DNA sequence: AAGGCGTGGTC
DNA sequence: TGACCAAGCCT
């Protein structure tokens, strides 16, 4: 029963390791606040910790509350987002701030279903906020957690395709106590981030190595179902990124003056059209600009 | 439900 | 060098 072995190891070995070795990250500071946690989780969606930290601090200095962000135009959020990537997260974070102001009196909700109803918040982010900001007991499952469970419990080198089963897996590993469960969620993510990594896991430094089903079975290669990322060079995504960068840095521009030297004019026009459709840019008096809201 | 969606660092 | 990877979400 690898689950019981792993559960015991998480409680007795992983959590003490985490208490001693956890990185000091801004959102782990006592009293960081639910808004700060929520903003950090938006930024951390597919973006590394090291790139997020400076942007997070600037963001919270400018907009210390959801209402402060909601009072500005979405254009300001997209511009402040700068080069963090996936700029629709900036748009969605702004929308979520408006929804928090209008539906929750400006207070980040604590209830998972209320969080899930906010724009840009899914299974991971909703539970991360409920657990790390409010201390409630929920399974928090991100890519790190999925990898740790795949190896330690299921003896696989890599996780399978994401599924609701992941939440049940993690829930079964958590202790009953709210506070202890929150720490275990964080510790599991930390282990996946710094030890049980995707490419070269540091099994020699792993606090739960003795309980790991994958190590016990000889660390075999197993079927890999991960999605391959499409090539970026020459892609529509690259064109969209170039368009948005130009509008962020040079203000409103005529369509023909946005990335005028782009090698593929049809791709440029397609990028502009999909950005408009996504609400990331808008045409106004013959000029393209960031959304004024 | 499979694919689209940025950007930069690493090996 | 190019492919992989990074605290996902939406349609």
TrEMBL record:
<dbReference type="Pfam" id="PF00730">
    <property type="entry name" value="HhH-GPD"/>
</dbReference>
<dbReference type="GO" id="GO:0035485">
    <property type="term" value="F:adenine/guanine mispair binding"/>
</dbReference>
<dbReference type="InterPro" id="IPR011257">
    <property type="entry name" value="DNA_glycosylase"/>
</dbReference>
<keyword id="KW-0227">DNA damage</keyword>
<keyword id="KW-0234">DNA repair</keyword>
<dbReference type="InterPro" id="IPR004035">
    <property type="entry name" value="Endouclease-III_FeS-bd_BS"/>
</dbReference>
<keyword id="KW-0004">4Fe-4S</keyword>
<feature type="domain" description="HhH-GPD">
    <location>
        <begin position="43"/>
        <end position="194"/>
    </location>
</feature>
<protein>
    <recommendedName>
        <fullName>Adenine DNA glycosylase</fullName>
        <ecNumber>3.2.2.31</ecNumber>
    </recommendedName>
</protein>
<dbReference type="GO" id="GO:0006284">
    <property type="term" value="P:base-excision repair"/>
</dbReference>
<keyword id="KW-0326">Glycosidase</keyword>
<dbReference type="GO" id="GO:0032357">
    <property type="term" value="F:oxidized purine DNA binding"/>
</dbReference>
<dbReference type="GO" id="GO:0051539">
    <property type="term" value="F:4 iron, 4 sulfur cluster binding"/>
</dbReference>
<dbReference type="GO" id="GO:0046872">
    <property type="term" value="F:metal ion binding"/>
</dbReference>
<dbReference type="GO" id="GO:0006298">
    <property type="term" value="P:mismatch repair"/>
</dbReference>
<dbReference type="InterPro" id="IPR003651">
    <property type="entry name" value="Endonuclease3_FeS-loop_motif"/>
</dbReference>
<keyword id="KW-0411">Iron-sulfur</keyword>
<dbReference type="InterPro" id="IPR023170">
    <property type="entry name" value="HhH_base_excis_C"/>
</dbReference>
<dbReference type="InterPro" id="IPR044298">
    <property type="entry name" value="MIG/MutY"/>
</dbReference>
<comment type="similarity">
    <text>Belongs to the Nth/MutY family.</text>
</comment>
<dbReference type="GO" id="GO:0034039">
    <property type="term" value="F:8-oxo-7,8-dihydroguanine DNA N-glycosylase activity"/>
</dbReference>
<dbReference type="InterPro" id="IPR003265">
    <property type="entry name" value="HhH-GPD_domain"/>
</dbReference>
<dbReference type="GO" id="GO:0000701">
    <property type="term" value="F:purine-specific mismatch base pair DNA N-glycosylase activity"/>
</dbReference>
<keyword id="KW-0378">Hydrolase</keyword>
<keyword id="KW-0408">Iron</keyword>
<keyword id="KW-0479">Metal-binding</keyword>
<dbReference type="Pfam" id="PF10576">
    <property type="entry name" value="EndIII_4Fe-2S"/>
</dbReference>
């Amino acid at each position: 029963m690898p689950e019981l072995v792993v559960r015991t190891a998480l409680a007795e070995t992983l959590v003490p390791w985490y208490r001693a070795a956890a990185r000091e990250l801004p959102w782990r500071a006592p009293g960081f606040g639910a808004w700060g946690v929520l903003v950090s989780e938006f930024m951390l969606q597919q973006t590394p910790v090291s790139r997020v930290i400076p942007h997070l601090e600037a963001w919270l200095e400018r907009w210390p509350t959801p209402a402060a962000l909601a009072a500005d135009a979405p254009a300001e959020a997209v511009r402040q987002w700068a080069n963090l990537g996936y700029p629709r997260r900036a748009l969605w974070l702004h929308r979520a701030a408006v929804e928090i102001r209008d539906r929750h009196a400006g207070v980040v909700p604590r209830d998972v279903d209320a969080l899930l109803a906010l724009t840009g918040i899914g299974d991971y982010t909703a539970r991360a906020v409920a657990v790390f900001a409010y201390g409630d007991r929920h399974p928090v499952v991100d890519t790190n957690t999925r990898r740790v469970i795949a190896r330690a419990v299921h003896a696989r080198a890599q996780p399978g395709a994401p599924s609701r089963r992941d939440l049940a897996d993690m829930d079964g590993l958590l202790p009953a106590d709210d506070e202890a469960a929150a720490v275990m969620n964080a510790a599991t993510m930390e282990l996946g981030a710094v030890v049980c990594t995707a490419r070269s896991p540091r099994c020699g430094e792993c606090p739960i190595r003795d309980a790991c089903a994958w190590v016990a079975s000889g660390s075999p290669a197993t079927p890999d179902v991960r999605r391959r990322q499409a090539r970026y060079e020459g892609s529509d995504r690259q064109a969209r990124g170039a368009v948005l960068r130009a509008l962020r840095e040079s203000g409103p521009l005529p369509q023909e003056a946005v990335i005028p030297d782009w090698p593929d004019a049809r791709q440029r026009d397609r990028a502009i059209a999909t950005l408009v459709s996504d609400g990331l840019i808008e045409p106004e008096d013959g000029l393209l600009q960031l959304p004024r809201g």
